[in-house]
């Protein structure tokens, strides 16, 4: 039986793909990680200030959240090889950190995307500006996203405890589904914005940061050592389609009739929702009065 001296690191040639990480790529990745969080702040603030989901497509919230979960599942599985190399000592600290930056970035992006749904559920629940029927649909979206999260955990466990072919099959399927949902999710949101002729609660500031940032993020994922195409293609598609949506919102908000039509359309929509909610409260009050 071959005796391996204690402390001796056995070199795994398959880990060499993660070596020679770029310092420049590391710096860009760290800046992008910070930028991902900052880019979502305008959207959170817009939901907080408006207290309504007016302008946000329910399907956009559902597909966007599920797309992020698919991508996170993909990167957790794809990056497992690098984590194994780090655990065996085949990679130094610098290369280990570089190999896991994509996981940190995508994990943060997934969390931030789902938080949009969470903030809508929490901040608009008792708001007079929130369409109650729309809110019930958003509640159903929240349940579906939670179920998807559970299914993804099962996929991750199965993938990590299976052979390489099964792991990469699960990762690739999640990557493809993420790309598909990324394409699909922008269709209802673009349609909603086109129909309403105003961005509503959808944040232009967020998209102004995320659209160019999406292309930069795609580049860092592409040039990362050991990257897999299924981990970055969805972000390339997302950045392209988000650019289309951003152009529409900018047109309606600032250029079409100097934004006056967009402001009027949004105000009328919110006033209609408030009137409907007040009417429902009056009816409920009248029904409850005989019981007192």
Automatic annotation (TrEMBL):
Membrane topology field: Multi-pass membrane protein
Pfam family, one: PQ-loop
Membrane spanning residue stretches: 20-40, 60-80, 100-123, 144-161, 167-188, 200-223, 229-252
Coiled-coil regions listed in the entry: none
Compartments it resides in: Membrane
One term under GO cellular component: membrane
Annotated GO MF terms: glycosyltransferase activity
InterPro entries given in the database record: LAAT-1, PQ-loop_rpt
Keywords annotated in UniProt: Glycosyltransferase, Membrane, Transferase, Transmembrane, Transmembrane helix
Protein name, per record: Mannosyltransferase
Organism lineage: Eukaryota, Fungi, Dikarya, Ascomycota, Saccharomycotina
């Amino acid at each position: 039986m071959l005796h391996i001296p204690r402390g001796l690191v056995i070199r795994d040639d398959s880990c060499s793909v993660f070596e020679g990480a770029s310092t420049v790529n590391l710096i860009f990745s760290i800046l992008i990680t910070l930028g991902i969080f900052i880019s979502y702040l305008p959207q959170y603030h817009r939901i907080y200030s408006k207290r309504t989901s007016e302008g946000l497509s329910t399907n956009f919230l559902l597909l966007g959240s599920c797309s992020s979960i698919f991508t996170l599942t993909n990167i957790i599985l794809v990056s497992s090889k690098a984590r194994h190399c780090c655990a065996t000592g085949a990679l130094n600290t610098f290369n280990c950190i570089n190999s896991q930056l994509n996981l940190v970035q995508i994990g943060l992006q997934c969390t931030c995307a789902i938080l949009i749904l969470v903030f809508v559920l929490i901040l608009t629940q008792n708001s007079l500006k929130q369409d109650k029927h729309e809110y019930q649909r958003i509640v159903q979206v929240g349940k579906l996203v939670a179920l998807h999260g559970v299914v993804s955990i099962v996929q991750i466990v199965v993938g990590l405890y299976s052979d390489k072919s099964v792991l990469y099959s699960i990762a690739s399927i999640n990557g493809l589904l993420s790309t598909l949902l990324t394409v699909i999710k922008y269709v209802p949101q673009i349609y909603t914005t086109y129909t309403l002729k105003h961005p509503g609660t959808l944040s232009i500031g967020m998209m102004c940061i995320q659209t160019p940032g999406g292309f930069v993020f795609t580049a860092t994922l592409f040039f990362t050592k050991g990257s897999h195409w299924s981990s970055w293609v969805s972000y390339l598609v997302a950045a392209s389609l988000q650019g289309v949506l951003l152009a529409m919102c900018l047109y309606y908000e600032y250029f079409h009739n100097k934004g006056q039509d967009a402001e009027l359309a949004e105000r009328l929509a919110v006033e209609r929702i408030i009137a409907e909610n007040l009417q429902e409260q009056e009816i409920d009050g009248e029904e409850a009065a005989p019981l007192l």
